[in-house]
Amino acid sequence: MRLDDLRRSKNVEDRRASGSGRMSVGRGKGGILTFIIVLVGAYYGVDLTGLMGGGQENYQQTSSLNSSEEAKLEELSSKVLASTEDIWSAYFKQNGLSYKDPTLVLYRGATSTACGTGQSAMGPFYCPVDQKVYLDLSFYDDMRKKLRASGDFAFSYVIAHEVGHHVQNLLGITSKTQRAQMKASSKAEANQISVNVELQADCFAGVWGHQLAKANRLEEGDVEEAFNAAQAVGDDRLQQQSRGYVVPDSFTHGSSAQRLAWFRKGLTTGNPAVCNTFN
């Protein structure tokens, strides 16, 4: 990615100095993290399982990032956030709307949010209540080593996806889908709504990527990095890796093929209007 001349966002809240340290928490049935996710999600009607959903039941976050790597990732994250601010502000303005920038919170291990306790084992996530994206930079290390999805554009896709949830929140999509999930007649139906929400965020991330490509910000191999990342966090792939089998009705974020297809759709068109995953 060519980001050297891009500004940094002013909407980054760095909590790393006050972090509680790297925490290793299982995600299996009865685990503390599972309890937190269920409790908070039920209360607010949102999915706080992060970018990857519930596919990795015993996912544990560890990191070997050194201070230099963290500094580079912090700069990348800030510049990527700034690019989303510019791109979505322009889109909202074109449609007679006002865009409110989200805040990116950098933390280590665990942190408090308006949606409950956030932990790095969740992966990156967005809280619609405080309109903040939460990110432990060590997720880059996990993408590289555990998900085999490396590269700056792959990591940037992660941030753009979470900002996509913020766009949904501002457009009223989040509240509508929350109500629809509460009225769902089955867990499978509620899960499908969640999948649609996640795929739309992937498509919105693609729209962001389209604008970067248009501005000649992408380098050779960047698009392939993002495609690989989108597939790496598919529910089917994560379930196969952690369980050895796949349960489609339990998907909350979409299959690898779906996530790639919707990200590609946004990337190809650059038009948020094509991101209607609900029809």
TrEMBL record:
<keyword id="KW-1133">Transmembrane helix</keyword>
<keyword id="KW-0645">Protease</keyword>
<dbReference type="GO" id="GO:0008237">
    <property type="term" value="F:metallopeptidase activity"/>
</dbReference>
<keyword id="KW-0472">Membrane</keyword>
<protein>
    <submittedName>
        <fullName>Predicted metalloprotease</fullName>
    </submittedName>
</protein>
<keyword id="KW-0812">Transmembrane</keyword>
<feature type="compositionally biased region" description="Basic and acidic residues">
    <location>
        <begin position="1"/>
        <end position="17"/>
    </location>
</feature>
<keyword id="KW-0378">Hydrolase</keyword>
<keyword id="KW-0482">Metalloprotease</keyword>
<dbReference type="InterPro" id="IPR007343">
    <property type="entry name" value="Uncharacterised_pept_Zn_put"/>
</dbReference>
<dbReference type="GO" id="GO:0006508">
    <property type="term" value="P:proteolysis"/>
</dbReference>
<dbReference type="GO" id="GO:0016020">
    <property type="term" value="C:membrane"/>
</dbReference>
<feature type="region of interest" description="Disordered">
    <location>
        <begin position="1"/>
        <end position="23"/>
    </location>
</feature>
<feature type="transmembrane region" description="Helical">
    <location>
        <begin position="32"/>
        <end position="53"/>
    </location>
</feature>
<dbReference type="Pfam" id="PF04228">
    <property type="entry name" value="Zn_peptidase"/>
</dbReference>
